[in-house]
Every structure is written in C-alpha cells, then in structure tokens.
Design goal:
The chain is of the alpha+beta class and 92 residues long. Helices cover 32% and strands 32% of the residues. The protein has a 4-stranded antiparallel sheet with strand order 2-3-1-4. Keywords: Aromatic hydrocarbons catabolism, Isomerase.
C-alpha cells in the first residue's frame, strides 16, 4: 500500500547544536537504510520550509507507524498521512 507522508520538522530553538548535528546524522542514516529497503520510495524537501513530503510503500498501517517512529527525529515531527488508492484514470 502506498502512503503520502507529510512531515513538519519542529526542532526546539534551544536544542544543543552538537546534539542536533548528531540527531541529523542519525536521521540521515536511518532514512538511507529505509530507502534502500524499498519501503521509503520518495523523499522530497518542501521548498522554503523545514518540511518534507514522502511516499512509503508498506504492508499495513502498523508497518508504516513502525517505520516512521523508528526515525530518530520522530519526536520532533508533526506528521500527516494520506493513504493512496488507484485513480481510475491513471495509466500507471
Ligand atoms: O526533512 C527533515 O529534515 C527530516 C527528515 C526525515 C527523513 C530525513 O532524512 O530527514
């Protein structure tokens, strides 16, 4: 099943810069691992905002939740999920 996931990143302004750098590195590594697994199909930055839009291909809502909550920066995200269904006019 495909899901469109929209994440707003809300890192506290007073977070220790060294801690933030570590968190971002861990986030990048986990995101690369998930992309290589084929579950994290697309990842796009929203231009001009600390936000991203991505496409996940998961077996279930539970699997999607497990993947999202495994991201090290999960506590700092506001997430919206839109489950995608086939459009009758799509040729793909
Ligand atoms: O968009 C961000 O900064 C947060 C994020 C989610 C996956 C990733 O690699 O970064």
């Amino acid at each position: 099943m495909l899901y469109c996931v929209m994440m707003d990143v809300n890192v506290p302004a007073d977070i220790d810069p060294a801690e933030l750098a570590k968190l971002r590195e861990a986030e990048k590594n986990r995101a690369i691992e998930m992309q290589k697994s084929g579950k994290f199909v697309h990842l796009w930055r929203v231009a001009g905002r600390p936000a991203n839009i991505s496409i996940f291909d998961c077996e279930s809502n539970d699997e999607l939740h497990d993947l999202l909550s495994s991201l090290p920066m999960f506590p700092y995200f506001s997430i919206k999920v839109v489950p995608l269904a086939k459009h009758p006019s799509s040729i793909k």
